[in-house]
């Protein structure tokens, strides 16, 4: 089976060229995008993500502010910090990394981010847009995963898609994004009785569970597109650590028609989508401001 590696770094680099040009435009009009990236506590996948956001924001010429809080922070303190960023006219985008510690309400925190600055589109008022097929700005990992499927030239209308994992920020948005394109979508999760029965039917299989080696070759339809969203840090016998996905890459890459590697697949495109969303957010604020006050005096 000839199979194609979906190169996330290449897709990300192409997106960043366009984003950088849009940033230059915004800056020329007095709207330099500024992204505030909030993380709470110390989660390795979050630290990895924020590190790559910082590096990529520099490449895209987007101002970047890492805002880190200790796991012990109280809900009210975090809400106050978010309200401060909402009110700060320099800040055009806010992302709140997940997970947050159990004692915090992610829904209330997400709801506190002003919809115009919500660069992940996870505000209850924003995530609904996906149901209405308004797909310009959405959760970055979900958008990145669908972007990589588009690289396969598979027609999405009627495509048999299986999504394994049903998180609010990845699994569910992917299902909605693909339903908007006319795909037939099945969403599996930990309560699904026989995962293989579903995964073997899929022309496109998305896996976002957080379990190394969950998907093996016999669970995949020959020729299918496999989008591996898992980001698992494993320790090798010699004690060194490595980032792997949820798919057993060596065996599945032998029969998949297309497959995304980890690292080098969904990850880099997620970061590039975040930068694109930061530009969309700043552009929306510019339009909103101009609709009220007219163009900014230069
Ligand atoms: N609100 C929210 N949105 C998220 O999208 C979100 C989150 N919270 N919490 C944490 C997870 C994790 N995540 C990653 C994205 C990219 C890489 C990434 O850049 N990976 C690269 C680099 C890996 C490396 O440098 O070794 C790769 O896979 O090639 C990693 C992890 C987004 N997340």
Automatic annotation (TrEMBL):
<feature type="binding site">
    <location>
        <position position="231"/>
    </location>
    <ligand>
        <name>NADP(+)</name>
    </ligand>
</feature>
<keyword id="KW-0560">Oxidoreductase</keyword>
<keyword id="KW-0521">NADP</keyword>
<feature type="binding site">
    <location>
        <begin position="165"/>
        <end position="167"/>
    </location>
    <ligand>
        <name>NADP(+)</name>
    </ligand>
</feature>
<dbReference type="InterPro" id="IPR020630">
    <property type="entry name" value="THF_DH/CycHdrlase_cat_dom"/>
</dbReference>
<keyword id="KW-0486">Methionine biosynthesis</keyword>
<comment type="subunit">
    <text>Homodimer.</text>
</comment>
<comment type="function">
    <text>Catalyzes the oxidation of 5,10-methylenetetrahydrofolate to 5,10-methenyltetrahydrofolate and then the hydrolysis of 5,10-methenyltetrahydrofolate to 10-formyltetrahydrofolate.</text>
</comment>
<feature type="domain" description="Tetrahydrofolate dehydrogenase/cyclohydrolase catalytic">
    <location>
        <begin position="6"/>
        <end position="120"/>
    </location>
</feature>
<keyword id="KW-0378">Hydrolase</keyword>
<keyword id="KW-0368">Histidine biosynthesis</keyword>
<dbReference type="InterPro" id="IPR000672">
    <property type="entry name" value="THF_DH/CycHdrlase"/>
</dbReference>
<dbReference type="Pfam" id="PF00763">
    <property type="entry name" value="THF_DHG_CYH"/>
</dbReference>
<comment type="similarity">
    <text>Belongs to the tetrahydrofolate dehydrogenase/cyclohydrolase family.</text>
</comment>
<protein>
    <recommendedName>
        <fullName>Bifunctional protein FolD</fullName>
        <ecNumber>1.5.1.5</ecNumber>
        <ecNumber>3.5.4.9</ecNumber>
    </recommendedName>
</protein>
<dbReference type="Pfam" id="PF02882">
    <property type="entry name" value="THF_DHG_CYH_C"/>
</dbReference>
<keyword id="KW-0511">Multifunctional enzyme</keyword>
<feature type="domain" description="Tetrahydrofolate dehydrogenase/cyclohydrolase NAD(P)-binding">
    <location>
        <begin position="139"/>
        <end position="285"/>
    </location>
</feature>
<dbReference type="InterPro" id="IPR036291">
    <property type="entry name" value="NAD(P)-bd_dom_sf"/>
</dbReference>
<dbReference type="InterPro" id="IPR046346">
    <property type="entry name" value="Aminoacid_DH-like_N_sf"/>
</dbReference>
<comment type="pathway">
    <text>One-carbon metabolism; tetrahydrofolate interconversion.</text>
</comment>
<dbReference type="InterPro" id="IPR020631">
    <property type="entry name" value="THF_DH/CycHdrlase_NAD-bd_dom"/>
</dbReference>
<keyword id="KW-0554">One-carbon metabolism</keyword>
<keyword id="KW-0028">Amino-acid biosynthesis</keyword>
<keyword id="KW-0658">Purine biosynthesis</keyword>
């Amino acid at each position: 089976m000839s199979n194609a590696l979906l190169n996330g770094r290449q897709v990300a680099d192409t997106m960043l060229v366009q984003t950088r040009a849009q940033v230059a435009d915004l800056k020329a009009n007095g709207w330099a995008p500024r992204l505030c990236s909030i993380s709470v506590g110390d989660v390795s996948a979050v630290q990895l993500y924020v590190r790559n956001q910082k590096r990529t924001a520099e490449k895209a010429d987007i101002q970047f502010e890492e805002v880190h809080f200790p796991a012990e922070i109280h809900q009210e303190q975090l809400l106050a910090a978010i309200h401060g960023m909402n009110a700060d006219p320099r800040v055009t985008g806010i992302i709140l990394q997940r997970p947050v510690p159990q004692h915090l309400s992610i829904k209330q925190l997400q709801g506190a981010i002003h919809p115009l600055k919500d660069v992940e589109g996870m505000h209850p008022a924003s995530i609904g847009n996906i149901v209405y097929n308004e797909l310009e700005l959405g959760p970055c990992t979900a958008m990145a995963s669908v972007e990589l499927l588009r690289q396969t030239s598979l027609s999405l209308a009627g495509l048999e898609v299986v999504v394994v994992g049903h998180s609010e920020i990845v699994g569910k948005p992917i299902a909605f994004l693909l339903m908007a394109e006319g795909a037939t979508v099945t969403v599996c999760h930990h309560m699904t009785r026989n995962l293989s029965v579903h995964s073997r039917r899929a022309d496109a299989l998305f896996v976002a569970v957080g379990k190394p080696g969950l998907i093996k070759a016999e669970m995949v339809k020959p020729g299918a597109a496999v989008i591996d969203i898992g980001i698992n840090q494993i320790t090798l016998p010699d004690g060194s650590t490595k980032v792997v996905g949820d798919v057993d890459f060596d065996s599945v890459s032998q029969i998949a028609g297309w497959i995304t590697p980890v690292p080098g697949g969904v990850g880099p495109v997620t970061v590039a989508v975040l930068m694109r969303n930061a530009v969309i957010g700043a552009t929306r604020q510019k339009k909103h401001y101009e609709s009220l006050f007219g163009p900014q005096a230069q």
